[in-house]
Each structure stands twice: as structure tokens, then as C-alpha cells.
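Supplementary Methods, section 5.1.

A reviewer requested that the exact input to the structure prediction be made available. We therefore reproduce it here, unchanged from the version used in the analyses.
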Amino acid sequence: MRLYQGIRSLILTLFRKILFIWVRTDVSGNSVDALALDPDKPVCYALQYSSLSSRLVLEQEVIRAGLPGPEDALPVKNGPSHSFFFLYRRIGGFFRGRQAPAPTSEFRALVHYGLEHPDQDVQIVPVSLFWGRSPDKEKSLVKLLLSDTWSIAGRLQKLLIIMVHGRNTYVQFNQPLSLKQMIDEYRHNEERAQRKLARILRTHFRRVRQAVLGPDLSHRRTLVAGLVRTQAVKEAIRETAAKDDIPPEKVRAKAYKYADEIAASMSIVTIRFLEVVLSWLWNRIYKGIAINNIRVVKEVAQENAVVYVPCHRSHIDYLLLSYVLYKNGLMPPHIAAGINLNMPVVGPILRRGGAFFMRRSFKDNPLYATVFNEYMHVMFSRGYSVEYFVEGGRSRTGRMLQPRPGMLAMTVRSFLRDHRKPIVFVPVYIGYEKVMEGRSYLGELRGKKKQKESVFGLAKTVRKLSNSFGRVAVNFGEAIHLSDVLDDVHDSWRQQAYDAEYRPAWLNTAVSELAFRVASNINASVAVNPIGMTATVLLGTERLAMDEGQLIRLMDQYAALLNDFPYAGTVTLPEGSGKDWVAYCEDMGLISRMPQKLGDIIGLEGSNAILMTYYRNNIQHLFALPSLIASLFENKDSLRRDKIVFLASVAYPYLQSELFLKYQPDEAEQVINQWIDVLIAQGLLKSLDDDRIGRPDEGTEAMLRLRVLSRFIIQTVERYHIALGILRKYGSGKISAAELEEQSALLAERMSILFGLNAPEFFDKSLFRNFIANLQKNGVITTDDNGLLCYGEGLDEVAEDARLVLSVEKRQAIQQVTMMGA
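The structure derived from this sequence is encoded cell-by-cell as follows.
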């Protein structure tokens, strides 16, 4: 018997070595730490379908990872003779191999052992294996033969698949299941215990397969034709034909053309081609890609329709997220792309990579709007993963832009129509150390006209590929279940019926709440990097320069603030210390060094001084509250703690709306108090008698730290003061919101020139617009029948409190500028 087992083991080893002459694998989850295995309990691996090739791949990957071996006999009496089993056995001959839901003898023996030995446990590790990854397009027999899809391959088909796709094999080890826990409730019914464990494993394998392959896809022409046949589009065709006096056939042809213009045509060939090209590209232009919290996506993708909502900083975002998901065993999403990207050559490639195209505006074209809405509904109801940017366009300032409601509203309305498939939003922060479009953003912020995307523009970008753009981080944030948002806004939403055109009265509230949660969760997943830390500190100095040793100490101390009071568990901080960060920024060419006998001076020069505001703005929200507290001591040696809390709480709603801070207004007081304690512990403030808080003595390094910290947010407060100053100068009922916005932006731009404020967002109209809207929302100002802004004494109090954070010079400068503007 022992001789037989030895020969058998030798033969299997030989087969495995022959197989891996050709096969190449990409594996995830194959470590003791990732699986959290208990070393005191035996391990048994579970594969879904009996297959010699799958067994050989499992053995090879277990050996490579140093995991407990599948060939080892389980230390259980009367159990399987090895530590793996197939859930289902194969039925049929060589040419007609088919799977049937018939549990294997090893599976049954393991369940029997578990029932017979209730004091023993076995860790069952499900392992999923994919020979190539392709959505089933049902387009041709060749595609079905040569792709690992939802269909179950016979032996001959499997052989062909291995020959074609063996070098693109994906293996995923998943968290172990406890045999004891799975079958414990059926101690006296072995058949039911077998059915329960088989059902759990079957469900697990199905969810993993959906996450990796995506749902089954229909042929694109069938999908496009089906959109035109939906009831909503038929009705839109009738209405358009009647309104414009056009024959219905022509309108129907136009609807078909719209659908064809919109729909993606995802191709696994294109995706694999892009994987190769992008792997080369990332290695050429980046020093590495850090991926954090991918576990969240793998969990929610198994049983939900996932909407990826990344921040939008670069055109690279599209490609990078799809690449990261694919490399981690998840199907790339269908991506909402602007119609401007549907260029010759580039457009077809993007479409086959999963992009669907949308026009910038649906206004005055209800037929197009209906077709697009129906396309989105098909995506969500069939469980596709989708990606879109809630900001609408790329951020030119490095800040999170105010979300646009369009795509979010379509998603919510689609879910209300059919909520059988749960929808989960996954916020994604994509952080660049050096954004590729940085220089062009500077030109646009200075008034240069935005250049239209073109093939020639793309060719110019290729010239930049010889440059290094540092490292890039892809951080996945806390998932948002759409049903939870709707429960909080309107808990009886499930009791209503919704058709394609119905818009409930509470829809806007739900979309606004969803938009804020998405934006704040993106910001709560920020990746802090050396560029951002260096930019933040240097831009907080008066002359944009500092002694190197002092700069290093300040960066280390501000990093300690983020460690002492973490903003969120999904925020990532840079490795190393301030010394390493200065050297890194210098190597990237973003800072300059001026040698000096008393110590080198590090500074920002030329366009880099403005460009670095972009990277500071990436992380500004992390320092918003401690910086606001520090700014209150600009003109005061000490303040009562309750006064600090009150003033910061008054300002908080405006900062929260602008920077998408995650704390709710009713949490603000508690968080502000916590920050006061942290600042005291760090020596930036000190506790005095009578519940007063004082600042450090003038001339000390602690006072310098506090002053620099206050400047992280001071320009935001100055903007608020400009708007309030203009409004008070005109008087109540004398100026409209649009005029106030315009006047504020003009005067802010003038101040930026006069006083050398190197921050383009300082005079961004949208920020003034948001501030004015929040003054109205909070009841500080109202609008009369003529559309003019009215206010009472409350505005004067807010304005006087704002003066506390401004230096004498700035107060006088702003007063002078507002008087000129009036």
C-alpha cells in the first residue's frame, strides 16, 4: 500500500511539473496571515469541481506559499486520506464530461467525521481557480471553448482552455470555514448536515465567480436593441415624434443610434491587452502602486452590484482602477466616460475596455435622457459593477469638488424601480505624488482655455512617459449600502411602487445625503504622502522657505498629530520621517535647496510654489479642525475652552461642506474638545486656570508650530471674511447671491495678487457659491422676493467672530479691499 502511494505521489509530482512548464498563475490570499489559520486545527482545502489540473495547481500553490499541504492526510480517523476535497464529482465520459450536484465521497466522509467527533474541528479553505477570466458574451463557440466562464467545461474543453489560457490562471484562497460551526445544528441528521455545508460552499463559489467574472453578459447588439424596446423608451419615442412631428420610425432609429453610442462592448481580449500595456506603463512612469483595503471590495462584490466612485484627479484614474481590480481578481467595471473621450482609435479601445459614453448635458433631449437612464437600469438590475466620478470633472485644485447629482440620481431611481439586487457604493481615493496633468491645471486656473481632448493631445502626453511621477496609492474606503441611505432618509421607501418616470418628493434629499457620504468617505480614505506633507508645511510659512532641520522637525510633529488622533482607519500615512520626505521631494524636483553655512534652506520657487498647493489641498481636510483651533490664537494669548469650542463649532458646518469632513455637526463639539486635548499633549497649547487655554510663549518653537499650523486653514477663513465683508458693506437687501459670488471672487483674486497668495482656489467662484448657500441653509441670511440677500444681527456676530483668526495686517487689508469693492 505504501509502495502504491509512493508511486502515485511520484506520478502526480511529475504531472504537476509538466503542467507548470506552461501554466503561470496569479494568486491571492495564499498566506497563513491572510487566511488567519489556527495552527492547532487541521486544514482541508475545498475545490468546487473534480479536476486533475485543479488539484495539481492547488498542490503547487500550497507548496509555494508554505501552507499545510493538501497531500497530507487529515489527522482524523476515518476521514479523507488527504487534506483537500472536491465538492462535486464529475459524471460522464471523456468527451461528454458534465458536472452534477452530487457530493464526492471525500466530502461526505468529512461531514461524517465532524458529526462523529463534535469536540474536533477542521478549517475548510475554499479555493477558486479560473483558467483565464472572461465574461460570457455568448457570441461564438470559439469564445465559449477558450474562456473560463459561467458555463462548466468538459474534459476536452478544459484541455483547450488550459492550452490557450494556462498562462493567465487566477487562484484565490478564501477565509476558512469551521466544519464544526457549519454542521453543529444537525448533529443527528447527517443528510441535512451535508446539504447545509454543500449549500454554503456552493453559494461561496458562486459569489466569488461573480466577483471575478462579473455577471453573464448579453451580446451587445441584443442589449442595444432591447433598450429601444423598453416601455420607457417606447413612450419617449411616441412623445418625441408627436412633439417634433417626425415619423416614429425615424425617432426609433435615433433612439437606436443613441443606445449604440452609449453602450460598452467589453472584450476580454482588450482587457488582457490593456493589462500588458498598463503593466509596462506603470513600471515606466511610477515607482510603485500601493493598494489598501481591497478586502472591502472583495467582500461586497460577491453579492451586490458595486458602484465604484473614485475621486477624479487625472485621466489615468480610469485605467488605474480597472487595472488594480483586475490584478486583484475582480471584474473591471463598466465606466461612465465623457463623450469627449470617444475619439478615433482611443474611443473603441476604451469601449472594449468597459467604457460607456455619456454626453455632458441631457438638457432639452428627453429621448437621449430616457435611453441613457434605461441603459443604467440594465447595468444595475443585472448586477454589473459600474464606475463613475461624482465630481463630474477632474479637480484642478486638488480638493474634492462638490458632487454632481446626475449619475447618483439615476442610480437611486433605478434601485427604487428594482431593488432585488443590492447596490453598494465603494468610495476610492486615488492619490498621486505628481499628477500628470499638473502643469496644464496651473494654466487653466490662471485663465487659460481648457484644451479639448484629441489624439494629437494624447500623443503629446506620451512624451511625458520618460518622466517619473513618483508613487501612486489606491485606497478603498468604507462601503455605503444604498438601502441604508434610503432607510435613513425615508424608511418606508420599500412600501411604494416606482416606475421609470416617478420621482418621489424625498428623492433630492436622498441624493444629497448619498453624495455627501460618498465624498466624505473618499476623503476619509486619503493617502498622505511625502509630497503632501512637505507642501503643507512649506506653504504655511511666510516666505515659502525654512531651515531644513526645522522643516524636518515640524513635519514629524504634524505627522504625530495625525497619529495621535487618527481621522479614519482608512487613511494611510507615509513611511519614514521628515528627513526622508525632504530628500524624496528634492529628488522629485519639487523643492529647491539653498546651501547656507548655518544650515541649508529648503524652499519653493517659481511654478512649483503654486503646483504644491494642489498636493497640500489633497490632505487639507485632515488638519482642518486643529488648524482652525490654532487660528483662534492668532490675536489672543488665551481663551476659555467653551469659547474655543463655540467659535470652532460655528465655523464647522462651513468647513464640513467645503472639505467634506466626516463628523456630523452634533459630533463637532466632542471632536473639537478632543483636538484641544491633543494639542495640549503635543505642547502646542497649554492648560491654564479657570478653564482657560493658552498659547505658547512668543519666540519659542512651540509658538512657531502653532502659527504654521494655523496657516493650513487661514486662507479659507479669509475667503469667508471677504464674502461677509462685501455683504455687510452693501447692506441687507441690496445684493443678490450671484452678485455677491462675483464680487467676492474678484476681490479675492485681487488680494491674491496684492499679497502673494499662491493658492488658485482662493478665488474659486464655486467655493464662494458653496459658502453663500450654506449661510442660507443655516438661516444666517435669507432671500427676499426680489432675490436679494437679507440678514440680521446674527451675521454681524459671525463676522466679528471671524475677525479673531485674522492678523491685524490681514484685517486691514481685507477691509481696504472690501471698501474698494463697494
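Residues 93-100, 135-146 have pLDDT under 50 and may be disordered. These observations are discussed further in the main text.
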